[in-house]
Design goal:
The structure holds 2 protein chains of 2 kinds. Helix content of chain A is 23%, strand content 26%. Chain A has 3 helices and 5 strands; from the N terminus they run αβαβββαβ. Chain A has a 5-stranded mixed beta sheet. Chain A starts with 6 loop residues before the first helix and ends in a 9-residue tail after the last strand. Chain B has one domain. Helices cover 56% and strands 2% of the residues of chain B. Chain B has a two-stranded antiparallel sheet. The chains are: A alpha+beta, B mainly alpha. Chains A and B meet through α1, β3 and β4 of A and α4 and α5 of B.
């Protein structure tokens, strides 16, 4: 039986696709619900995206189901924030929902960086 | 099925119905443009709210505001593009700035969203303009050129796909 790609691989691919289509994204960070929860396949991939062109509207996680035909075998949650909102999260003035914690940063692919 | 799944599907179903109504109204030559735009604004709002349901947003909180389009809509479209690239297709490069501008214009079509009073024009109710005259939505040109270009086509496709995905999931 063919194993689906790991959650980490799908998260990286999603982040790269988002960087590629939106030059206004400054940074994408994976969020984690803790090691135990992250081992459950139903636990979504969670990406926090810092975008200089989005509206400052607070923390609104958007939930997406899996889409196996396109290789997205896991549900995902995207939170898009402005750089100022990101600062507030870093300084603990704004809390992430569901006790999620900041995880690894996804590097911006060279092809997606602005000239 | 959990309660938030029911809300999510119900919002998506109604959003899809609004989207179809908008399309029907847009092809009717004797119908003022504001009518199809009104349904488009409502469709966008409900589809965005469908994605917000159950992720920390209570349905009663979502009911209260119309300002839920310009943030979520580009994210929803972006996720659709990520799927396209995952299926071997190409994604429309750098369309997001146009799409974001269009999403904001659609959000401003609701009477309750007026950018601090500076954009009173809306699809539903008459308003008093800076010229001191009262304007009716059915006479107004909403300058929605972006809707008929690349960003508009992509947005409509993303909305249909998103709403159909959500309603078909369960």
């Amino acid at each position: 039986m063919v194993q689906p790609p790991s959650k980490a691989m799908v998260a990286k691919r999603l982040a790269e696709a988002h960087y590629a289509i939106d030059p206004e994204i400054e940074l994408i960070i994976g969020l984690t619900a803790g090691a135990k929860r992250e081992r459950v396949s139903d636990e979504p991939i969670k990406l926090l995206e810092v975008n200089r062109s989005t509206v400052p509207s607070g923390i609104h996680p958007l939930f997406f189901g899996p889409h196996r035909d396109s290789g997205i075998a896991y549900p995902s949650v995207i939170i898009m924030v402005t750089p100022d909102e990101y600062e507030d999260i870093l300084k603990k003035r704004t809390k992430l929902p569901n006790r999620w914690q900041m995880g690894s940063k996804f590097a911006k692919p060279v092809s997606a960086t602005r000239s | 099925m959990t309660n938030y799944d029911q809300w999510r599907i119900a919002y998506a179903k109604q959003g899809l119905a609004d989207l179809k109504a908008s399309e029907q109204l847009s092809v009717s030559s004797d119908m003022p443009r504001c009518q199809s735009l009104h349904f488009l604004q409502m469709a966008c709002e409900k589809i965005c709210k469908a994605y917000l349901c159950g992720q920390g947003e209570k349905p009663e909180t979502l009911h209260r505001s119309h300002a839920y389009i310009s943030g979520p809509l580009p994210v929803i479209a972006g996720q659709q593009f990520a799927r396209i690239s995952g299926s071997g297709g190409t994604h429309p490069h750098a369309v997001m700035p146009e799409l974001r501008a269009l999403a904001r214009k659609i959000e401003l079509l609701a009477p309750a969203v007026n950018h601090g009073g500076s954009v009173p024009a809306n699809c539903e109710y008459p308003w008093k303009g800076p010229d001191g005259l009262v304007h009716a939505p059915c006479d107004h040109n909403f300058q929605m050129d972006l809707l008929y270009g690349r960003a508009g086509r992509i947005l409509l496709k993303a909305l249909y796909t998103a709403a159909q995905d959500l309603t078909a999931r369960h």
